[in-house]
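Saturday, quiet lab. Running sequence design on the structure tokens for the scaffold JK sent over.
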């Protein structure tokens, strides 16, 4: 602080940045935040701070550290050049200080140290565990290097040059290294769910695949059942037994700890026994393999991630993998949003997994498949002419359509749209090829879905036609002909006390044929062509007119209906006047209406958002901040904005059950909201496990498929008594 961030911090900063953001969220008026190790060396410093260097505060915290109990976080506050500074010492299990966190606040901020510590305690405990884990791993690594001269060889990573041929086969290189270094006749890596089966012999020799064929089932069963290393030095030569080789097999684990495969080394029966050193090195390499798999493969589909896909394709092209032309497929699953709406997002994930399973069956030797984002995939086809690539794409289309299946009273329809393009020989051939294939894929969707389109330069003007132009025409038609419909999704209390349900009003567009079109299919076009405010007016008018006949039932109850307001409407003075007139003329109790603003929209239009919220709140309505947590820059404005509810973004909710850091952030948001007198709502609560977890973390309300699915507003208004009973049952 008060100086450039040291160059050596560049590699550390990204991993500690979430903790800095979390502290800024918990203490919005903090002007500077820094983390320091036990020697006072900076680990991470907030870039935005340009005030005095807090090093004296850090030095004082280290110099004056009293004895402390295990795991205790302690510290002090003091005036630092005219403004309050807070220092927090983090300790290990022996009570030794391992790090110091410093928060510098603005002049005029004078909160007691105990109050600030109470706010930041969850974040600092999480940071302390992170630093302790790093220190433990660092000590282990240094100790192993000192004891084994060959450790660097076995932990060797693939070259950073993406065009280096070895980069495309990092796992193969690791297996080959282990075979040569341990003097083995064969090495094998088998991870079925990742479609990985690597077999390597000594350099220059041909692998005896029959050895792996005879043993792989036994070794996989052993690894998954026993979950530990198998060491066989006494060779069993009995008929029908294992081949006469000494075997060292170590389990390969998923990040969750589940065993997914094995890494095995084979020596001849008269070779040297595998000793403790070989066992230890094999286990280290097994952990390295697990890390490579975790980094390079998508956890949900077992396909390559996009970065790994691009690296491996570029490396394959650099080695001349395709003697002839090379092609790429861009694959987009059709109507996954419909599956999500009708059956739940977990069924949508099932569909994505089934499509990925089709892609894992290599359609061509050397082919590479990846999940590049959400419900989109890419396949690289080496040495493949465009005509043959089109045939492969047609086969994948047909196989995907055959995945459709019955579920409950409905049918989950599965289909994909595929774009095909040829890669040129330029350095940017892959990027251009993927972009061309994506354009062709969009054309396939425009022309009916479930089909294949080939990118042709002669068809470029048609392929590049903006889909938004057609969508915005449909939007204007829908507004003119009243082809929108309101759905409502319940928001229910998570605590034992129960209570009245709340609802968020969700907009759907109707096609000329009556098909329901979700907002993600038209909102981008509405934003680009300035139609959002017209849509917001439609929603307000129809929401109020639908609720007005129920005014007698709604008055005096805790029911609340949330209406979303877009960024352009926030900035529109005429919309504010329209909103005031509509509310005053509705005759509805104002407490029944809550308006939701996204965090990003509120911060982007802060002054106008504050004016709108203050004037509408004066009428008796409330406000919720939607997608909370995605735009941390807005947190410092929470004290001024009249917000009564924070809706925690669904990405945090989904990740909280598996990620301790995210769980700590959710807990911290709930704690922050309660401190400021606000309520919290967890979005995308899709399972009962998440519902219970959110309740345990202190979140007040839940919204998602585990709470209730969106249904037409008319049905909700006709069945309010049922929702009230549901709320009492959940209580």
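Result came back. Writing it out in full:
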């Amino acid at each position: 602080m008060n100086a450039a961030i040291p160059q050596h911090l560049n590699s550390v900063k990204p991993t500690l940045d979430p903790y800095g953001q979390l502290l800024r969220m918990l203490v919005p008026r903090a002007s500077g935040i820094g983390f320091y190790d036990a020697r006072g060396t900076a680990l991470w410093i907030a870039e935005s701070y340009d005030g005095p260097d807090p090093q004296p505060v850090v030095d004082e915290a280290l110099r004056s550290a009293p004895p402390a109990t295990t795991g205790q976080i302690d510290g002090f506050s003091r005036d630092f050049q005219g403004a309050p500074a807070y220092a927090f010492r983090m300790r290990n299990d022996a009570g030794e200080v391992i790090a110091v966190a410093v928060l510098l606040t603005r002049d005029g901020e004078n909160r007691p140290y105990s109050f600030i510590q109470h706010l930041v305690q969850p974040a600092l405990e999480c940071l302390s565990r992170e630093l302790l884990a790093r220190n433990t791993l660092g000590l282990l690594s240094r100790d192993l290097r000192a004891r084994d001269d060959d450790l660097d060889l076995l932990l060797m990573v693939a070259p950073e040059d993406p065009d280096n041929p070895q980069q495309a086969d990092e796992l193969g290189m690791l297996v080959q290294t282990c075979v040569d270094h341990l003097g083995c006749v064969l090495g094998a890596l088998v991870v079925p769910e990742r479609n990985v089966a690597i077999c390597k012999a000594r350099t220059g020799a041909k692998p005896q695949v029959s050895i792996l064929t005879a043993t792989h089932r036994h070794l996989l069963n052993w690894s998954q059942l026993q979950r530990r290393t198998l060491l066989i030095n006494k060779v069993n030569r009995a008929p029908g037994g294992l081949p006469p080789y000494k075997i060292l097999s170590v389990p390969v684990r998923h990040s969750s700890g589940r065993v997914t495969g094995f890494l095995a080394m084979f020596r001849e029966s008269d070779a040297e026994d595998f000793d403790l050193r070989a066992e230890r090195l094999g286990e280290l390499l097994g952990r390295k393999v697990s890390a490579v798999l975790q980094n390079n493969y998508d956890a949900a589909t077992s396909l390559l991630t996009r970065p790994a896909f691009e690296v491996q394709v570029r490396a394959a092209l650099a080695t001349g993998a395709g003697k002839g032309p090379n092609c790429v497929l861009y694959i987009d699953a059709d109507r996954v949003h419909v599956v999500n709406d009708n059956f739940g997002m977990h069924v949508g994930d099932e569909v994505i997994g089934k499509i990925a399973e089709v892609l894992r069956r290599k359609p061509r030797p050397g082919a590479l498949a990846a999940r590049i984002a959400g419900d989109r995939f890419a396949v690289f086809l080496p040495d493949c002419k465009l005509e043959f690539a089109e045939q492969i794409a047609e086969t994948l289309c047909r196989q995907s359509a055959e995945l459709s299946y019955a579920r409950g009273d409905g049918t989950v329809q599965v289909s994909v749209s595929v774009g095909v393009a040829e890669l040129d020989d330029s350095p940017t051939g892959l990027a251009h090829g993927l972009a061309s294939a994506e354009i062709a894929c969009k054309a396939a969707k425009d022309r009916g879905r479930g089909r294949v389109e080939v990118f042709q330069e002669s068809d470029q003007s048609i392929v590049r036609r903006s889909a938004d132009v057609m969508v915005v025409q449909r939007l204007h038609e829908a507004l003119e002909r009243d082809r929108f419909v309101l759905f409502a999704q319940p928001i229910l209390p998570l605590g034992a006390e129960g209570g009245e349900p709340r609802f968020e009003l969700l907009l759907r567009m109707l096609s000329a044929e009556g098909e329901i079109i979700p907002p993600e299919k038209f909102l981008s076009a509405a934003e680009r062509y300035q139609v959002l405010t017209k849509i917001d007016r439609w929603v307000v008018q129809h929401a109020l007119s639908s609720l007005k006949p129920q005014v007698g039932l709604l008055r005096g109850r805790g029911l609340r209906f949330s209406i979303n307001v877009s960024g352009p409407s926030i900035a529109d003075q005429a919309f504010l006047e329209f909103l005031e007139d509509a509310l005053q003329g509705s005759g509805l109790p104002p407490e029944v209406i809550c308006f939701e603003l996204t965090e990003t929209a509120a911060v982007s239009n802060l002054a106008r958002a504050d004016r709108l919220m203050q004037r509408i709140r004066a009428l008796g309505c409330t406000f919720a901040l939607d997608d909370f947590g995605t735009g941390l820059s807005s947190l410092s404005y929470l004290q001024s904005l009249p917000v009564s509810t924070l809706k925690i973004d669904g990405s945090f909710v989904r990740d909280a059950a598996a990620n301790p850091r995210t769980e700590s952030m959710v807990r911290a948001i709930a704690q922050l909201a309660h401190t400021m007198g606000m309520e919290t709502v967890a979005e995308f609560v899709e399972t009962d496990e998440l519902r219970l977890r959110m309740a345990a973390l202190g979140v007040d309300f839940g919204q998602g498929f585990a709470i209730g699915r969106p249904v037409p507003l008319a049905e909700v208004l006709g069945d309010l008594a049922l929702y009230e009973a549901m709320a009492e049952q959940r209580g």
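Notes for JK: DSSP finds 26 helices and 28 strands in the chain. Residues 304-465 form a domain with the Alpha-Beta Plaits fold (CATH 3.30.70.270). Ask whether to fix the surface positions before the next round.
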